[in-house]
From TrEMBL, chain A:
Gene: PSMA8
The protein, known as: Proteasome 20S subunit alpha 8
Signal peptide extent: none
Gene Ontology annotations of biological process type: proteolysis involved in protein catabolic process
Xref: InterPro entries: Ntn_hydrolases_N, Proteasome_alpha, Proteasome_alpha-type, Proteasome_sua/b
Compartment(s) where it occurs, according to its Swiss-Prot or TrEMBL record: Nucleus
Coiled-coil features, chain-numbered ranges: 193-224
Keywords of the record: Coiled coil, Nucleus, Proteasome
Main location: nucleus
Similarity field: Belongs to the peptidase T1A family.
Gene Ontology CC entries for this record: cytosol; nucleus; proteasome core complex, alpha-subunit complex
A Pfam family hit: Proteasome
SUPFAM superfamilies: N-terminal nucleophile aminohydrolases (Ntn hydrolases)
From TrEMBL, chain B:
Keywords per UniProt: Cytoplasm, Nucleus, Proteasome
Organism annotation: Lates calcarifer (Barramundi)
Family, similarity comment: Belongs to the peptidase T1B family.
Entry keyword annotation includes Cytoplasm: yes
UniProt xrefs under Gene3D superfamilies: Glutamine Phosphoribosylpyrophosphate, subunit 1, domain 1
Gene Ontology process terms (BP): proteasomal protein catabolic process
Gene behind the chain: PSMB2
Coiled-coil intervals: none
Protein name (record): Proteasome subunit beta
GO CC annotation terms, alphabetical: cytoplasm; nucleus; proteasome core complex
Amino acid sequence: RLVCSFHVGIRGKDIVVLGVEKKSVAKLQEERTVRKICALDEHVCMAFAGLTADARIVINRARVECQSHRLTVEDPVTVEYITRYIATLKQRYTQSNGRRPFGISALIVGFDYDGTPRLYQTDPSGTYHAWKANAIGRSAKTVREFLEKNYTDEAIAGDNEAIKLAIKALLEVVQSGGKNIELAVIRRNQPLKILESKEIETLVAEIEKEKEEEAEKKKQKKST
Amino acid sequence: MEYLIGIQGPDFVLVAADNVAASSIIQMKHDYDKMFKLSEKILLLCVGEAGDTVQFAEYIQKNVQLYKMRNGYELSPAAAANFTRKNLADYLRSRTPYHVNLLLAGYDDTDGPGLFYMDYLSSLAKAPFAAHGYGRFILNLPSFTVRLIDKEGIHDLEKLTLGAK
């Protein structure tokens, strides 16, 4: 099944955020079986866009590699290392005979063991790049432009601000608001946390309020 | 001589291991930790052939962690014990068997505390109390690491120092 949804990743100072558009499922379908944000290790996680079945394979290989790395060098992987591993895996499948490339783009976030936050993006060709903030999936270009304007030092000054920036980016694309947003955060030295829909609703309400206040201020400025 | 002991209580498991790393008559370390944390509520105590102990225990440790990453929840102590035993058994009749004696202690949220005895021949027994080693020589071992596992997790207790001071 193709996952044509939209994903955004934000690298803050002490937090990394992954936001994903949750597609509404069929009435009889169990919602929780559709998981697009996966932990690779306690300090790294990834979101993918593309063929879910292909993603399962890549994620499994990455999880094994994370533990294998810990076993051989007694250190957790750096985000760059595991990204490079996934990218190398993808590239191999573009150059071997009889195999087709993995149909997924991935956003990989986490903290290195020295505390630096990282965000990387890979695509089916096997290339990877580091980003401060990025979006993949449908309407990614529009959101990237939004992020280019709104990713400032102020915007990521605190954990909550970074999360709100991710939600704002998602709201540009997602029609029905908080209910169709899935958000995961990793804070330094803490495991992956997937936000509950209540927390997301509260933050969405805050953002709406801030927007209204901004609009009010502008109106007042114009009238004076 | 290395020593391990485990005691299962009504809602906890208490384990202790000596802290000596020795080669024949030379005691190289007096602060060696023989307990491996497999998960938030499971400890693997491991003694035996030098090298085999750490190699085997760390291999099991990483595989238990991999299970957690793949499935989103941790292996139960019983499952981890059986997994460990199976690995030991598979290697037993190979060219490279692991000569290790183990105690696996854990707390299962549904079944409660559990203590599992395993030896280098890959036997497995769930027991209320168990030990490896020759207890008579405790007096020659300067200190023991003591830990407790209950529903909250693994707790470090005060090191036991026995023998002449």
